[in-house]
Amino acid sequence: MTNGIHFRATYAEIDRDALQHNAKIARQVAGESRLLGVIKADGYGHGANTVAEAISSHVDAFAVAFIDEAIALRNAGFQQPIVLLEGCFSEAELPICAHYNFQPVVHQQQQLDAIVTARLARPLSVWLKVDTGMHRLGWPLADVQRVYRELRNCPQVVSVTLMSHFANADTSHALNQQQNDTFKQVCVDTQTMTNLSIANSAALVSTLFDTSHPSSQWVRCGIMLYGDNPSRLAQPPQPLRSAMRLVAPIMALREVKRGASVGYGSTWRADRDSLIATIAIGYADGYPRHAKNGTPVVVHNLEATLVGAVSMDMITVDVSDVANKATVRIGDSVELWGPNLPVARVAECANTISYELLTRVSARVPRRLK
Ligand SMILES: *Cc1c(COP(=O)(O)O)cnc(C)c1O
Q1: Per-residue pLDDT tens for 4-45?
Q2: pLDDT at 213 (0 to 100)
Q3: What is the pLDDT at residue 226?
Q4: What residues pair up with 302 in beta bridges, in sequence order?
Q5: What is the tens place of the pLDDT at every residue in 129-142?
């Protein structure tokens, strides 16, 4: 955006050691299972190439949402197999999959027809997605045997991995057991004991992950690589580390009298004389506009709170209490989330999830490698 020259001191620091640390923990929990490093959406906002490089020796393959993301990784030089989690959107993608060893998910009839009628230089490894209850993508149980047989008999296909996705892996929802049971039924129906994949990060961390046949499983690991444990039920054996630290400088400081309001809409009013810091980050950078009054930020290792509405390029923070313990100056850097402030906490204050905050850090925020 600026030919690599950045004067504005707002940036996202990406910690490759943290990515590696988290990948090692995933590996440890997954045991003999194979690991799919999920790096869709530009590596959850961290930079797909940075993440791919950091985790490549800890995972067995990568996964992205669609083929353009996979092509970008090949063009950057990565040789690993890449699963396309949404599969192909047109038959024109199939020869590219064959050429580059992209492994498309097959979740509906048009995708199946395209593969069956294609003439490819090399056969594909495909992932057959079963709808076990989430009702977003995949084949109903009644179709799976037929589709599985068709793929196995197809000369364009060299292997089929059965997969499904939990709708509630982060909680103890009753649908989890039902989805697990349905997936087991699929394995029985298709007489498949190997090449199975149902667990995401939350399922891996919690007991949802079926450890009875670990080597037959592929774990699809996303958010935990980036340092957030999505499970509300369980903790990984060691704490994960935040891979992104979002930072912005204090650009103005002012004293605001008791009773005065701050920002658009005057949505916050000072109930005491207050020191207000204006920080150079806003919703155009990906800071959530719906973050409420009281959302934490970290200044000099102390927590301060967001006050007033989030603007396009700025936020306002009450640093009165911080100023009692440390000297607060223009130019001081503020952590919006990172090692000192879990992104999940900020997400909760903005009524969203860590995934959305991380993937929405915008292109005008430079990523700096730590
Ligand atoms: C994004 C995605 C994942 C990764 O999920 P996390 O919760 O980030 O681990 C796994 N499977 C599918 C199908 C996905 O789309």
Answers
A1: 788 999 999 999 999 999 999 999 999 999 999 999 999 999
A2: 73
A3: 98
A4: 299
A5: 999 999 999 999 99
Distance from residue 229's CA to the centre of ligand 1 (Å): 13
76: exposed, middle or buried (Cβ count in 10 Å: 0-12, 13-18, 19+): exposed
264 given a catalytic annotation: yes
DSSP-derived pairing of the beta strands 196-197 and 124-129: unpaired
Handedness of CA 33, 126, 208, 60 (dihedral sign): positive
CB distance 219 to 30 below 8 Å? yes
Q: Residue 4: its pLDDT value, please? A: 73
Q: Decide if 184 is catalytic.
A: no
114, 94 Cβ separation under 8 angstroms: yes
Residues of the chain under the 50 pLDDT cut: 1
What is the Å distance from ligand 1's center to 38 Cα? 7
Q: What confidence score (pLDDT) does residue 35 get? A: 97
Instruction: Please report the pLDDT score of residue 209 as a whole number.
Output: 62
What is the position in ligand 1's atom list of the atom closest to the CA of 224?
9
Bridge partners, residue 129, by sequence? 163
CA distance 17 to 72: 23
Give the span between the Cα atoms of 288 and 344, in whole angstroms.
Answer: 12
Q: Which of 44, 226, 264, 370 is catalytic?
A: 264
Residue 5 pLDDT = 82
By the 8 A CB rule, do 68 and 81 touch?
Answer: no
Mutate to test the pocket of ligand 1, among 127, 165, 183, 220 (most ligand atoms within 8 A of CB): 220
- Please work out, in degrees rounded to the nearest 5, the angle formed at the alpha carbon of residue 139 by the alpha carbons of 197 and 86: 65
Question: How remote is the CA of residue 258 from the centroid of ligand 1, in Å?
Answer: 47
